[in-house]
Design brief:
With 158 residues, the chain is of the alpha+beta class. The chain is built from four helices and nine strands, in the order H-H-E-H-E-E-E-E-E-E-E-E-H.
Length: 158
């Protein structure tokens, strides 16, 4: 009986110890993925204003993918670099994979993102691996602009 209880405890702990495995984010890898996708994507650099997601105990125990309407202020990437964009309405979709969910602050800090252009407007999918959002560092901006110009666009190896 003790062995059975020990086996059940180990199985429970092992199941909880599993972790989400994400490739390190790389702006060139994401650019190449977006360029090869059937959908159309736009690279935005700026801030998003939106109502925060509710933080309840129930949402932490059983997370669900949620969407929020947001307003984007900033610039978009063109062949000649980033250019001022008009205010854009964007749907933010916070994706959950099991207990792991994507998130993004609404504090007005700039962020560099790949948003999908759909028939209904712009959609930014934020997954737990943060594969479509990046810090707007000089390196990330230089690399994504080089990709857009058709220059070297190789992902940094893992």
């Amino acid at each position: 009986m003790k062995r059975l209880m020990l086996a059940a405890m180990i199985a429970t702990i092992a199941g909880q110890a599993q972790a989400l495995s994400c490739a390190p984010p790389d702006i060139a890898r994401t650019f190449n993925w977006a360029a090869a996708a059937e959908e159309s994507y736009i690279v935005l650099n700026g801030s998003f204003s939106f109502e925060p997601l509710p933080r309840t105990r129930a949402s932490q125990l059983a997370p669900e993918t949620m969407s929020r309407d947001a307003v984007f202020e900033g610039s978009y990437l063109g062949v000649e670099g980033f250019k001022a964009a008009p205010s854009l309405d964007v749907t933010l979709t916070f994706v959950c994979l099991g207990p792991w969910c994507g998130s993004m602050g609404n504090d007005g800090d700039d962020i560099l993102v790949f948003a999908q252009q759909s028939a209904n407007g712009y959609v930014l999918e934020i997954d737990p691996c943060y594969s479509t959002i990046f810090a707007p560092s000089d390196d990330n901006i230089d690399r994504v602009e080089a990709c857009m110009r058709g220059e070297s666009c190789e992902a940094v190896p893992f």
